[in-house]
Specification:
Elements lengths: L11 E10 L2 H12 L12 E3 L27 H6 L4 E4 L5 H10 L2 E4 L5 H4 L3 E8 L8 E15 L11
Parallel strand pairs: 1-2, 2-3, 3-4
Antiparallel strand pairs: 1-6, 4-6, 5-6
Length: 166
């Protein structure tokens, strides 16, 4: 991926590499682990988290439908994860002022991807492995290897947002 600092709002990119799926309950557990001084289930520094809970995997497929979920639900947990080195997030929708400020402070980036197209997005996933919080079912943390995954920069490292009206 290009250097985070060079990405601009509205820019479309194709990402190839590792992303981790995590939703509400996984975020809550990760923040609780950080506060308790415990290790996280993956290296958070420079990681990208995809707000996604894939559906059941159909026979002969690598993964089920894997579209983005509403990012706002993760906002209470995001500033701490960014402070610990999280570099990027993928989801849909606006983010709170606190998250936007944390993205700017820690030089992260927030991407959106195509909502309602989970079956299409699954085609970009080349491998998947559940790695933590298995009891959460589809919301367990999974490590995905993706190729040419379509992303749009929604908030850049300078805190500028595609949702601003100016």
């Amino acid at each position: 991926m290009k250097k985070i600092s060079t990405l601009k709002i509205g820019q479309e990119i194709s990402f190839s590499g590792t992303i981790y799926t995590a939703r509400d309950q996984a975020h809550k557990r990760m923040v609780e682990a950080i506060k308790a001084g415990k290790r996280l289930p993956f290296e958070i520094k420079d990681a990208i988290i995809y707000y996604c809970g894939p559906t059941q995997t159909p026979k002969g497929k690598i993964i089920g439908s894997c579209g983005p979920t509403t990012s706002l639900r993760m906002d209470e947990f995001t500033p701490l994860l960014l402070a610990k080195g999280l570099r990027g997030m993928i989801g849909k929708g606006k983010r709170s002022k606190e998250v936007r400020d944390a993205i700017k402070k820690h030089k992260g980036v927030y991407f959106v991807t195509y909502a309602g197209c989970g079956a299409l997005l699954s085609r970009y996933v080349k491998s998947v492995k559940k790695i933590a919080y298995f009891d959460l079912g589809p919301e367990a943390i999974s490590k995905l290897e993706v190729k040419d995954f379509p992303l749009i920069v929604a908030i850049d490292a300078n805190g500028r947002s595609i949702y601003d009206k100016d």
